[in-house]
Amino acid sequence: MKRTMPAAIAAATALALVLAGCGGEDEPTDPNAPVTITLAGWSLSTTPEFKTLADGFHATHPNVTVELKEYDTTNYDTQMTADLAAGTAPDVYVMKNLKNFYTYQNGGQLLDVSSATSGLSGVSSVAAYQVDGKAYAVPYRQDSWVLFYNKDLFAKAKVNPPDGSWTWDDYATAAKALTTGLKVAGAKATGTYQHVFQSTVQGFALAQTPDADLLSGDFSYLKPYYQRSLDLQAAGAQPTFGTANTNKLTYQAQFGKQQSAMLLMGTWYIATLLKQRTTGDADTFEWGIAPAPQFDKSTTGTSATPVTFGDPTGLGINPKASKAKQDAAKQFLTYVASEDAGKALAGIGITPAQVTDAVTQTLFGLQGVPQDDLSRFAYAKHTIKPENPVSKHTAGLQNLLNETHSAILSDSTPLDKAITDAQARAKNEVLNQ
Amino acid sequence: MTTTDLYRPTPAITLPGQRPPRRHAASRARRIAGYVTLALAAAALLLPFYWMVVASLKTNNDVFTIPIKWVPDPLVWRNYLDIWQRSDMTTWLGNTLLLSVVVTTLQVLTGSFAAYGFARVRFPGRNLLFLAYIGTIAVPWQSYMIPQFILMSKLHLSNTLWSIIAIQAFGAFGVFLMKQFYETIPEELSESARVDGLTEFGIYRRIMLPLSRPALASLALITFVTTWNDYVGPLIYLRSPELRTIQLGLNTFISQYNAEYALIMTGSVLSVLPVAVIFLLGQRYFVEGIATTGLKG
Amino acid sequence: MATMLRTRPRHRRLVVRNTVAGWTFILPNFIGFAALTLIPVVVLFYMAFTNWNVFGVADWVGTANFRRMWNDASFWTALRNTLYYTVFHIPLTMAAALGLALLLNRKLRGVAFFRTVAFFPYITSIVAIAVVWNQLFSPEYGPVNAFLRGLGADNPPGWTTSADWSMPAVIIVGTWRYMGYYMLLFLAGLQTIPAQLYEAAQIDGATPWQRFVNVTLPGLRHTTFFVTVMLTIESFKVFDLILVMTDGGPGQSTLVLSQYIYQKGFEENQFGYASAISIVLFAICFGITVIQFMVNKRRNS
User: Fold this and answer.
1) Which residues are listed as membrane-spanning (chain C) (predicted)?
2) Same domain, B41 and B151
3) B181 with B247, same domain?
4) Are B222 and C184 in contact (CB under 8 A)?
5) CATH of A30-143+311-354, one of 3.40.190.10, 3.30.70.120, 3.20.20.60, 1.10.3720.10
6) Chain A partners of B135 at a C-beta cutoff of 8 Å?
7) Interchain contact C32–A (C-beta under 8 A)
8) Paired strand residues for A65
């Protein structure tokens, strides 16, 4: 059998062996020797955060140069998976969300960086990257979902703007009132815009509903949230899911061009909106941010802490990097979650992992950011729950819930049946694996 | 459209002189109707391209609107300036052109060469080997691209233009296509050539190649366009900015939280035009009788 | 698949000579093909029997992946949808491509322009195609439904926003996109039909339809076979068009096997399972191809 093995199979077996295991190499270390570490990033010309972090770190650690490697934005994880599998990945790379963090961590592609997190006790999202008490990545930004609203359109429709006390029912009432009011005033904008992402419904439902648990496979917590979305689109208070999908509506145009008076979105949109106002892609109007509407009254009002969601964005270290690079990379990771890095990031409109008073000060000092107290409150105070709990089943569950999302909002499947189907599929296709 | 219009495949039977004169007016009316139909069909086929052009003349947030705006207002010519100033369009086009030309040349050469072996030389295991070629077409690339990428990385070919050439140039497609066309050429032609003392290579070079020009043209056009528009291949294999192809380059206008659709469409329009020109030049090989004239006598 | 092995020495010499000649022709292509395609494909076959996670773990699990597939409702949905797409896409594209080729294989003013236009859907950016077709199909605002309402349809389909109509919509766009591509192949094939055959048929007084059936179709046999095989395989592997048009939705109504493979592999990091599904997809395509080969062979002889 062995002797007649065709060459292709022999070569394939050799390759399979290569695939099955690769090792790194070690070099002697000197903490002050010049060292260059590579960092993965994307769209470098329009995404300044990577360069901000690299330059900020180099200023305090002149012997370490952080070199950026550019990846494709939409297919970052595909490219990174290929690079990690072939051993050609950079020394430090980004976890776009917690779903992929699990894949990399579980695949042995992340170095234990617990030592880098020891001084970061004030950063709550550090915990998101801990597995069995060890940290495998460090967060540098922590966006959260808030309510963007157009003050001009509220005034035009003669509807009271959000005051921090809104539950989802208040939000729905306002959206309908805005739509009617705007029509009376002769504007064709809708009360609100719900983007096609599954997060716009499921993220809030999971974060805010008491005892909701993605991994339980019981998705009944989604029902009231979907019911409200269906009502709003049936009432014409927001473009339907079908319309948004078939017309590839962008939330930037919907809100920025004043097509909708409200928008639930992550805080990353602040930087985009500011930029689009200067380039003329967005209109110039009075806007503000408010806390996301709440599950019930217990978390509303500016004396309570509103609950919202968002995955941190973190950096991890490639275990195949040499010892010297690993050490330098760990220092870099400690830096990216620090207040210094936070202020630098806030200076370009980004929400860092640690929102301190100084960070809020910096962000609200930017040209064009609203100055009202509610916006500051919404930005600085909230409980942020992760959208993707770290687990082997998360990616599979989120994929099937994404299909459920489009089935419900396109009116293809009645709500109750869609949830029952999703629960059955979760049980039979994901949780049993 | 009548059946006569549809199934009149070669011009040999439509010589105007052979027509009885009384049918002249009817045939003219039919011809005009035919052109109108063609023009309407052309409009339907070009609609997305038209939308691309319109989108390239809009500001970014005007690209997607409800309802769709078919006429840009205001006209934004700036995108066509911006794309050259703000990006490496020249590099992207250069890389894409280089890849397309090299891959097309290699694919046509090796494909037509190998096809001759499959079509005209009988040897044991031939059909089995051919099935292996076809079989690999049936495997979705996204499922074996990681093993392939690892292999290429071990060969230090990833992140070079060579990687794209290597994975595109030796495909089974060209072999299969050319084999099918060689089989339409009568066996007697090569037999008599053999009697005249031509070697197998001579037969390939002197008889098969000249007779399969339409097939070579379609293989070349298809390979060129596929390489030109390939996105996933370069996405997996190329990382360095200076190696980007046009499709990869255009994707850099998409960032995490925003996408510059107007610029993407500007670039897409610019990237379609060279392909259209190549096609316009290449399609003249699909004219009557190139293959058939050689068969006379 | 009969081998040509004979016992007599003269034949044996011929066989050896032919084998050398055959391999000489095939080798330049085969080296590249074997190294870059065949080996990774063989690896894939191995990985289908492992729990490969792409990062080094690949433990042998026997047929576990295939047993899991048997009970995986989503896999069956994806398979059903793929068949749905294939069954309609193949004949429609075939007919459209052949029709276009016949129409544009004539002396016609501007034929070069029309041929280029017919090929345009294949070279237009797929994103633009998805955007425009989605907007054309838009239930409330789209021209397609406006037209249908004009014809008197009270309740026109929801197209890409409806689970029942999303697949027909994708099939229409798929046919629209690929017909120019296959037209090109038919155009090349039409050039191999000797003009004398048409002249002879003309003299015999054959009607256009008879000429089509008795001259064109038999003359195109080799091309038609190629197109059928390629079209079958490409339909079974349909991926990017669906991804940009509907992303498999609404619900799972347009989820196809290629997309499911990508989901399981790259999104859920179950490359072993994804490999096993690829093998099944391969087996279906390959089985049909072999049948097509055998039918073709019988027809040829």
Assistant:
1) 20-49, 83-105, 112-133, 165-188, 271-295
2) no
3) yes
4) yes
5) 3.40.190.10
6) none
7) no
8) A36
Answer whether residue B292 shows pLDDT above 70: no
C137 vs A contacts (CB less than 8 Å): 246
**pLDDT value of position B92:** 93
For chain C, the domain total comes to 1
B190 located within any domain: yes
Q: Is residue B109 part of a domain?
A: yes
CB C49 within 8 A of CB C38: no
CATH code for position B130: 1.10.3720.10
Q: Which residue has the tokens 């109007």?
A: A285
Contact C184 B218 (CB under 8 A): yes
Range 124-153 of C in CB contact (< 8 A) with B: 124-125, 127-129, 131-133, 135-136, 138, 141
Do B98 and B41 have their domain in common?
no
Res A54: pLDDT: 93
Q: Which fold has domain A145-308+387-430?
A: D-Maltodextrin-Binding Protein; domain 2 (3.40.190)
- Closest to A76 (Cα-Cα) out of B143, C266, C258: C266
Domain that residue B186 falls in: 82-293
Min distance C199 CA to chain B CA atoms (Å): 7
CA nearest neighbour of C118 among A306, A353, B235, B49: B49
Mutate to test the interface with A, among C52, C131, C269 (most CBs of A within 10 A): C269
Write down the domain spans for chain A. Answer: 30-143+311-354, 145-308+387-430
Chain B contact set for C121 (CB, 8 A)? 45, 48
pLDDT in tens, chain C (301 residues): 344 444 567 778 888 888 888 888 888 888 888 888 888 999 999 999 998 888 878 889 888 899 999 999 999 999 999 999 999 999 999 999 999 999 888 877 888 888 889 888 998 878 788 888 888 888 877 788 888 888 887 888 888 888 899 999 999 999 999 999 999 999 988 888 888 888 888 888 888 888 888 889 988 988 999 999 999 999 999 988 898 888 887 999 999 999 999 999 888 889 999 999 999 999 999 999 889 888 888 887 7
For chain A, say whether B150 makes contact (Cβ under 8 Å): yes
**Does residue B170 lie within any of the structural domains?**
yes
Q: ipTM exceeding 0.90?
A: no
pTM, rounded to two decimals: 0.88
Q: At A139, is the pLDDT very low, low, confident or very high (cuts 50, 70, 90)? A: very high
Answer for the pair A352, A345: CB distance below 8 angstroms, yes or no. yes
pLDDT given for residue A422 in this prediction? 95
Chain B residue with Cα closest to C235:
B138
Question: What does the pLDDT average to over A60-84?
Answer: 91
Residue C246 lies in a domain: yes
Backbone angles phi, psi at A310, to 5 degrees: 160, 140
What secondary structure, in 3-state letters, does C155-203 show? Answer: CCCCHHHCCCCHHHHHHHHHHHHHHHHHHHHHHHHHCCCCHHHHHHHHH
Contacts of A20 in chain C (CB under 8 A): 56-58
Residues from chain B contacting residue C230 (CB–CB below 8 Å):
137, 173, 176
Q: Looking at the structure, do residues B35 and B159 belong to the same domain, yes or no?
A: no
Rounded Cα gap, residues B49 and C116, in angstroms = 13
Taking the C-alpha atoms of residue B129 and residue C23, their distance in angstroms, rounded to an integer, is 11
Q: Which of B286, B292, B296 to mutate to test the interface with C (most CBs of C within 10 A)?
A: B286
Residue C4 lies in a domain: no
User: What is d(CA C81, CA C74) in angstroms, rounded to the nearest whole number?
Assistant: 10
Interface with chain A: mutation pick from B62, B86, B257, B260, highest number of A CBs within 10 Å: B257
